[in-house]
Protein: BTB/POZ domain-containing protein
Amino acid sequence: MEAVSPKDSSSASSPFSSPNVTALLKIKIISWSQETGLPVSVCVRVGARTFHLHRNPLFSKSGYFKRQLIETTELDLPQTFPGGPETFEMIALFMYGSSTLIDPFNVAALRCAAEFLEMTEELCSGNLCERFDRYLNQVVLQNWDDTLVVLQRCQTLIPWSEELLIVSRCIESLAFMACMEILDPERRRDKPVVTLEALAGQAWSCEAVKEIVSHELWIKDLIALPFGFFKRIIGSLRRQGMKEKYVSPIVVFYANKWVLSKKTMQYWESSGERTSDPKANDKVSTILQGVLDLLPMREKASRVIPVGFYFALLSTSIDIGLRNDRKVELQDQIASLLHFAQVEDLLIPNSGVDSICSSMELATMESIFSAYISLNVDTNHTPSASNSIVAELWDTYLSHIASDPKMSPKRFMELFETVPMSCRQSHDQLYRALNTFLEAHLDISQEEKGAVCKYLNCQKLSQWACIDAVQNEMMPLRLIVQALFVQQLNTHQAFKECSDSFRYAQCGEFSGSLSSSRCPNAKSQYLADSPYTDGAGPGSRTLSFLLQKDIAVQRCELSRKEYESTSFRIQNLEQELFSLKKSLQLQKTSKKTETLPTKTQIMKPYSVQSRSLSKTRNPLGHVAGCIGSVNFASQRKYANKLLKIFRQITLFGSRKSKRKSGVPSVWGKPMS
Structure:
């Protein structure tokens, strides 16, 4: 054990006012010489200081001196002497009959030094060992602050403080008083006990955790202890019956202070370490491994610890180089709680990384989601709420990393396949990720674009996403056609709902006296039972009726705008198809004039040879628009079918307005 310097000694750093021990000891030595007529006869060296003392006081109080000074008058105490020269000076003052000033800052060092010098009751009654034990039990261990001070002083007194059970007694006392703090009914009535339930639905924030801890002084005291002592206190809290929802937050607060806080490295630097020194990382790694041992695992942690905390630990473990087995253990713990995570909790690679697709963060996240799928998704891929949440979380994460220019389509498809498509109840986040990827990779081929977008199901898109997909020129033609059909179905359903919701309002307001041929019995049949009126006439409309009518009008306006936007998109596609068809006919005519068709060519005008020739003379780059990449030279029948489909879709709204020509239009003019 290293020698304790005067700066670190307990007695020297005591804040209590005390007399000059050195001057008092000199006075006692002189008085003893005058009273007995005996000169000093023993020389004791402790560290850099030398003490000239009398033999009789030392022999009467210390078994160590009585045994060591039989044949010599000079003695060097070992460098491991507890407390150093300052503590020995106070012990010597007691040997000369003076009362020793004891306080929580020096009692641990004095007790260990008295044990080293064998100052027990066998030599004299009321010796120092018994006196210091009585002070510890009756004074120190009954007070939170005094016990904390003694425990902190014991760090430099190991192994003596451990052998004398000073550390154990302090730990048990602190744990008992912490349990009493939790169980105090008056305190719980005035102020609730700190838990992590408030952080369960939020992204992890070190500053938010610091704010919580700042209101609990006793927790601040515990997390300021060295990890060895803190670990034993947590074990004592659990043994004494404290509930896990109160114990686990203390562990989280400790890790937040010593592992996750940005000031951790600054602390090691102020302690003589450099941030580049591997020893600093070793210290953080040791604490992190110890924290993982203290935290509850699996389902026990789901209700008391936010999953964002585990993600923060995982991020730190990557930076400091934690052992692989401990990182795998941490990843498995995160996988078991993944459906509670927030997007902000996930590990997103730094913007300065050369390639996101090859970063450690992305590989770690892929491993975590794969572990979740293996644990929670059965072979039948039965959909569930938690699986849908995880799938949406993964798609949102992909939308953050899809802009990486080095992300290949094949790698992006592998990431999509990490979570089975059956787990996705909504494809909105998937569409966002695809759109981000296509915007960042404009140079990919149409085949690659179609392969990447094959996962998207337009029937699982929301209304806004479907409208955006129709108008998105980066999407493949197949996807646009699917989105058009789905959007038309949505528009038809919206018109139907708006028509039903306006049944009462149109009959009552636009018909005046309700004499319309469409509503012959409107007053008796509709107004009396309308949910927007209370049986009153048209002149006494309620506020509820007016609000419902405004909502219905807004929905109809929105549906009309969506329909017009979709129709405009259809018209653009139809024009492009007409231009393509015309160009194909011109190419066919020019081809006939150049060479006489053979019998084989007359029978099969779309042979392999003509397809390759058409592709050569009509490159894809000459055609504008999102469907310009499709080669219609070999698919004329398919193009004609598309034209018929687009004409039918375009005429959808006009046929609906003709069928309802007897009802006044709420928009003022028929929709084309």
